[in-house]
Amino acid sequence: MVVLKTSRELAAMKAAGKISARALKLAGEAVEPGVSTMEIDRLVRRYIEEQGATPSFLGYGGFPASACISVNNVVIHGIPQKGHLLKEGDIVSIDIGAYYEGFHGDNAWTFACGDVSKEAQALMDATRESLFEGIQAAQPGNRIGDIGSAVQRYVEARGYSVVRDFVGHGVGAKLHEDPSVPNYGTPGRGVRLLPGMTIAIEPMVNAGGYTVETLADGWTTVTTDGKLSAHFEHSIALTPDGPVILTLPD
Ligand code: MG
């Protein structure tokens, strides 16, 4: 069931979104060679808790950390590790949610660790732009398929592929709500977009093929071909005037 939010609820979601966005910004600033993914997770947790909020992911389905930190060929759900030190040239996808006064904000960004290859930078740029293509397509009256097809078209025109096995989602009082928001689709198909809907659009884009595998830890999801993957996400609200990004730091 798709839950439509009132304007008061949207204001509360903006507050939750701001906390998750600021936590993500902080995490990104900490990305540098030699830093462990566990240290970044600690910063994220401390920041979110200092705001009187709760890390949405900590304990969610048993996830052991506050941030998913997914490096290079890891697509999503990377588990922060004390022994995993970032290296120059890594691309580091960080996904963070914060729960505040009854609502979740959910966002992700792929950061460069030091200087990265031209190929890695191009993948990150295309994935980020495909997110904004998807957001632009999230107009009331459009359908879910319009978002997915906008993302997919942008990505595939550049020779990359969109992950099928994981998708965006409604977001609100629950971290994952209806509807599903795939990063692929057919224009004019799927659930109709209405003012008051709040969704997380989150393209996961692979440099190679779109297939992924989940490792034995039950979380870490990697590209099957071992090539790079990037991930960008915003939580947005649909308003009569168009999409509004909820996960902004200011
Ligand atoms: Mg999400």
Distance between the termini: 31 Å
Count of extended strands: 15
Question: What gross morphology would you assign?
Answer: globular
Radius of gyration: 17 Å
* Backbone structural class: alpha+beta
Mind describing the biggest β-sheet?
5 strands, antiparallel
- Share of residues in helices: 25-40%
Which compounds are bound in this model? Answer: magnesium ion
Cross-sheet strand order for the largest sheet: 8-7-9-14-15
- Give the DSSP E fraction (strand runs of 2 or more residues): 25-35%
Report low-confidence residues grouped into runs of 5 or more. Answer: none
Mean pLDDT: 98
Quaternary structure annotation: single chain
Number of helices: 4
Order of helices and strands: HHEEEEEHHEEEEEEEEEE
